[in-house]
Amino acid sequence: xxxxxxxxxxxxxxxxxxxxxxxxxxxxxxxxxxxxxxxxxxxxxxxxxxxxxxxxxxxxxxxxxxxxxxxxxxxxxxxxxxxxxxxxxxxxxxxxxxxxxxxxxxxxxxxxxxxxxxxxxxxxxxxxxxxxxxxxxxxxxxxxxxxxxxxxxxxxxxxxxxxxxxxxxxxxxxxxxxxxxxxxxxxxxxxxxxxxxxxxxxxxxxxxxxxxxxxxxxxxxxxxxx
Length: 226
Known about the structure:
Layout (H helix, E strand, L loop, with lengths): L3 H7 L7 H16 L8 E6 L3 H6 L8 E7 L10 E5 L13 E7 L8 H14 E9 L5 E2 L4 E2 L6 H10 L11 H9 L6 H7 L4 E7 L2 E9 L5
Parallel strand pairs: 1-2, 1-4, 2-3, 4-5
Antiparallel strand pairs: 5-9, 6-7, 8-9
Helix pairs in contact: 5-6
């Protein structure tokens, strides 16, 4: 449980990690869908994103792109084309329709709450973005990427809490408090391809594969460039 080896593989903050290599491949998909747009002066709203992610991908040098990082708490930025915005992905009525050229979200949608909460977040993404790129881990991929436990997402809530009470799992340390355990294990709701089609009906649904299995799901809507 909580294998250091698996954690090293899944640690996307480490440049040479397996997870970071998958992120790099994901950005190739992103760039292929927005090739023409990425050479223009554009605005990108990153829902739940960090400056470090874009720095790792080499985007901090792209002066034609303005990034707004939306998070529930303020995040520090160090490059002139990045700004931080405090907000809740489910409550973005203060942002105008079509106010961002691209809304980007990477492994965030599964954290916003219930499916109704995910609908709220998706509707804001669709409304705010002239185009969007939303990635989330696939519910049906056997290894749950947050707890790094095979089949963890298929277990009843009480059994997931039972394991976390006794073991360190993935990025989470074992905790004795029952209420805290239930809150932790229920705070992540993985999505299926069918869910993503429901949330983003006009999008192209792209799957990322590992060992022949669908590891994550991406909803993409590309803006027409004049």
